[in-house]
Every structure is written in C-alpha cells, then in structure tokens.
Design brief:
By secondary structure, the chain is α/β, with parallel strands linked by helices. The chain is built from 10 helices and 7 strands. The chain is globular.
Length: 258
C-alpha cells in the first residue's frame, strides 16, 4: 500500500514512538501525545521525546504532553469524561488543519488504561473528521506490549510492514538506548524479544472493538494488577474497566455526534 504524504501519530505517553521509529523516518508524521510520561516520580519525558522526533524528521503537533501521568489517572478515577471527550474534537481539528490522510496510534491491549483511551480518542477523532469533512482517514495501530513484529492473522494483508535494513535497525536501537528515562525498559525489551524482532515494524488496521468486547467479560490486565496492588496496600484505589473506562469510552463515542 502506498501511504499518502500527510500522516499523523498519536501516542498515550512519550516514548511509544520508538516502536515505529523507522516509520517516523520514512513518513515524518505530525506527532501528538496525551501525557508527559512523568510517571510516579514526576519526571517528564518531553525533552527526550522532542529530541527523538527531531532526529527522525517528524514534527510536533499542538496536542503534545498535555497532562501529567498522575493527572490523567486522576481524571480516569474521577470519571472526568469531559477531558477525554474534549480531546476528540481538538485532535480532529488538528488533523483537519494539517490535511491528514493516515493516522497511527497505540493499540488497545489492556496493559495501561491511558494507552487504551488514547486509542479510543484516535478512533473517535478519525470518525469526527469524516463527519465534519466527509473524508475517511485511514487508521492504523501498533502493539506496545506484544512482539513488535506481531500482527493478527486476519489483518496481515491490510497491514503496513517495514523491514529495517542493518543501518535502519542500528539507528532505531541507538535512538532507543539514547532515551534515558526508558533505557531500562528498552534493555528489558531487547532481552525479552531479541534485537531482530525490532527489525520489522507492523502497523495494522485499528481493531479496538474486539478488545472492548473482550473486556466486557474478562478484566483487562491493568485492572487485575491494580486490584492486587490494592490488596497489598500499595494503591488506595484501582482503575476498573466497567467502573471507570467504559463510561469514558461511551462519552468519547458521543463526542463524535456532538
């Protein structure tokens, strides 16, 4: 598939762009980001993200590291659906102004609620552009926790596959290891998957509904993890799909029709 020139990337946290670093180099998208990646230690990753994007030749959008990690999780626990629904129209307007044709974003994997809500915001913003402009945005996702070269069998033919040569892989690994806040995670990922797994980048059509349907019957990973931490008295409260995420997802869906 030939990708139109005007592409965009939206990620939940800075650093996710490392999974598709060569895609950044090739298509140089407009990049937006939900949080600053500051985590529990409140150390933002904004400078590292900007440096990496500049190295790859991508540009930074007006929605970039809008809130801290603590803020976004507080919004989720408080049921602040207005914040997330408001992002739908904001993101749609950014894409309309930039005449975006293709977007890519985090897949919904049930590992982190911010990642999953980012995916839902992207889906809704793409639909919003279609509603406002009659333009269909091609919408892709990529895995953050799964193998970087994995793709569901039924979506393989429709996926974008980038095969990195030796030089491209070396640039990607150097950029990842030069991301100080994420270096320990990068090293663990390399140890777990092996370097060669990162020599193939796969972006496949968004398939969010299948995951949302799954979580109606089976708690996502972040919910099970959160419950365990509450039992250990390490967390005061845990984010649950039905209690916290589903109402926000519903509000995001309604934002398309607003």
């Amino acid at each position: 598939m030939t990708i139109p020139a005007k592409t965009a990337l939206m990620v939940g946290h800075p650093g996710h762009e490392l999974r598709v670093f060569h895609w950044l180099e090739v298509y140089r998208p407009l990049v937006c980001c939900l949080t600053d990646g500051s985590g529990p230690l409140e150390k933002p990753r904004i400078d590292s993200a900007r440096r990496l994007l500049a190295k790859a030749g991508a540009s930074v959008g007006s929605i970039f590291c809008r809130v801290s990690d603590k803020q976004v999780y507080r919004f989720i626990l408080d049921g602040n659906a207005e914040f997330f629904a408001g992002l739908v129209d904001d993101l749609a307007q950014v894409w309309i102004a930039a005449e975006i044709d293709v977007v890519a974003a985090d897949a919904a994997e049930g590992f982190n609620p911010a990642h999953d809500l980012c995916r839902c915001i992207v889906d809704a913003a793409a639909a919003r552009v279609g509603f406002l402009c009659g333009k269909q945005i091609t919408n892709y996702q990529f895995l953050l926790e799964g193998r970087p070269d994995a793709c569901p069998a039924h979506l393989r033919e429709a996926a974008i596959w980038l095969h990195l040569d030796e030089q491209a892989l070396a640039r990607k690994m150097a950029a990842a290891l030069d991301y100080p806040e994420l270096k320990p995670e990068v090293e663990l990922a390399i140890q777990h998957f092996g370097t060669e797994a990162f020599a193939l980048e796969c972006l496949y059509p968004a398939d969010t509904r299948s995951m949302l349907d799954l979580w109606e019957h089976e708690a996502p990973g972040y919910e099970r993890y959160g419950r365990l931490r509450v039992q250990e008295s390490r967390y005061k409260e845990a984010i649950g799909y039905r209690q916290h995420i589903r109402p926000i997802v519903q509000a995001i869906q309604k934002a398309i029709e607003a």
